[in-house]
Specification:
- The structure is a single chain.
- This protein has about 70 residues and is of the alpha+beta class.
- It is built from three helices and three strands.
- A hairpin with a 2-residue loop joins β2 and β3.
């Protein structure tokens, strides 16, 4: 049986990835961070698995140019 998708609201995403709100939205615009999913007219959230995949894809131990 498939587990239901879990969604993270912005404060949880900020805590999980260690980035500020402005940086997250700047990276979304640049295409380097997962975009949120519209849950309702005034609510968005991020797919927890997409955030985990993004974190797993980050290079480790190297200094890279960030957006």
């Amino acid at each position: 049986m498939n587990a239901p998708k879990q969604f993270l609201r912005l404060p949880a995403v900020m805590t999980a990835v260690g980035l500020a709100r402005a940086t997250i939205y700047k990276r979304i615009k640049a295409g380097t961070f997962p975009a949120p999913i519209q849950l309702g007219p005034r609510a968005v959230a991020w797919d927890a698995q997409a955030i985990a995949d993004w974190q797993a894809a980050l290079p480790t131990g190297t200094k890279t140019e960030l957006v």
